[in-house]
Design a protein that fits this description.
Strand order of the largest sheet: 1-4-5-6-7-8-9-10
Number of strands: 12
Distance between the termini: 22 Å
Radius of gyration: 19 Å
CATH superfamily: Metal-dependent hydrolases
Helix content: 25-40%
Shape: globular
CATH class: Alpha Beta
Amino acid sequence: MANNTKPLRYADVGINLGDPVFRGVYHGKQAHEDDLDDVVQRALDVGCTKLMVTGSSLKESHHAVELAKQYPGICFATIGVHPCSTQDFDHHAGGPSALIKELRDLTLEAKESGHAVAFGEIGLDYDRLFLSPKEIQLKYFELQLDLAVEMQLPLFLHSRACSEDFERILSARLDKLPKRGLVHSFTGTIPEMEALVKLGFDIGINGCSIKTAENLEVVKAVPLDRLQIETDGPWCEIRASHASSQYLRDGPVIPKAVKKERWQKGMMVKGRNESATIVQVAHVIAGVKALAVEEVCEAAWANSTQMFGLGH
């Protein structure tokens, strides 16, 4: 990169850094040494200086806050219960009200200290009703939205095959949600995306959002001022079979990945996506939109840092 070129800046607004695989643990077994520091360093090395760690349950939200404390100014937490984990409310020792109280207490403390920047991951997932039935998801999406209104944090949202209910529930609270939020890992249609943008929400794009030719048409249509970039690691890597891979023929080089059994320090792990690969997501988006990658990165950086208050 020439000296007169401004370095690219990235904010990975969706990374599940609390997952045990980032500590070298797969299916309960230690496959290699804990390399979390290396994962964070590789992100920093590519200019990804802000990582939003997803809270998907009370336990994982606590974990996300701990990581925000461990990597101050780099990691920031989201706090909430994922739609597929909403049965946690009914299974909680003190019942749903006790879990809401614990979420409220954690959010208040972490918001005050600057460690939590969004409420979520909350939403609806009708593709995985076997994990949590529709009525349970709806009940606790609404209950958590009430808490989010109270906390006045931007939302970190999950939406799968549920656009009608999702839009209806959010629309009813728009006047109470001035900071709106991000619909992350977006895989919906162009009309669904346009409806969310009209409601004032941003759209999060990762490897899962650019798998198919239809996905790429949606990405092409996302307004630049509503676009944010994420990896959703350790999932959602871009694979050779994906429609997006055609845009990576001249794409940025990422560190070598090996099978976990052959891991050596400094290497990525096959099948374990991480924040350093955000450069590929940005490159694909730029290719699809026929824009300079610098323009895409600066827009996404501005959108993310402004919405979530991530600093400079």
